[in-house]
Every structure is written in structure tokens, then in C-alpha cells.
Design brief:
Blueprint: H1 13-27, H2 39-46, H3 50-62, E1 66-69, E2 73-76, H4 85-105, H5 110-132
Antiparallel strand pairs: 1-2
Helix pairs in contact: 1-3, 2-3
Amino acid sequence: MLLQLNFKSGKPVYLQMVDQVKAAAASGALQPGESLPSIRPLAEQLRVNRNTVAKAYAELESQGVIESLPGKGCFLKANGSPFKREVRQQLLSEEIDAAIVQAHHLQVGREEFLKLVDQRLDVFEQKRAKAISPA
């Protein structure tokens, strides 16, 4: 798993890590039961503090994305959200609202926005299919 951090983005590094692990899990690039890199080597590779990696892993664990097994490491959990349907929809609604506000500021109209969402879903599905199917 390759993480790429942008230290100038304004988004906290640990949240960038959380988002990238979740995206890798959703796309199939990271499979359930697969281990995540250990905290110390990953921190050295990314040139960040170990506490930053530990915070990202703690956030992923609290969201039910990964599980930590003492002495063994952190592993991607099977695809089963710990959140109830209403909570998942609320979390997703907040993200969609942020995208809508951003589209408004960029002067992107409704039709163009919906077309872009549709295109991004197609790209995501293609990436997922490619990651899941054997090469």
C-alpha cells in the first residue's frame, strides 16, 4: 500500500492517511484480512511522527475499518460497517454537502456536477473491477 501525503494541502496528515486507506479498501486494492504496515516503518517511510500514524490507525479502528491485534499488527476488517444505515447516510450526506458547496464556489452547475459524479463513479467501478480481477 502506497500512501502519498501532501503537507501543503491544509488537511491534517493523519486524515489524509485515513482517507487513503479507506479508498484503498473501497477500491479493492486492500483486501479484508490484509495487514497494514507497522507504525514505525511506515512513519519512517512517510517521514512523519509515529504518533501521526498511530492516530490515523486509531481513527480507522474507531470507524471500524481496521482491527488491531496485539502483537500481530493492524488488519483490514471485512466489509461490514459498524454504523447503522442512518448514520452512514448522515456521514455521506455531510461529504456530499461539502462537495456541493465546493462546486458552487467553483461555479459548477447542477447538470455538470451530476455528470462529474457519474463519471467518477464509473472510474471508481473500473478501478475496483481491475483490482479485484486477477491479472
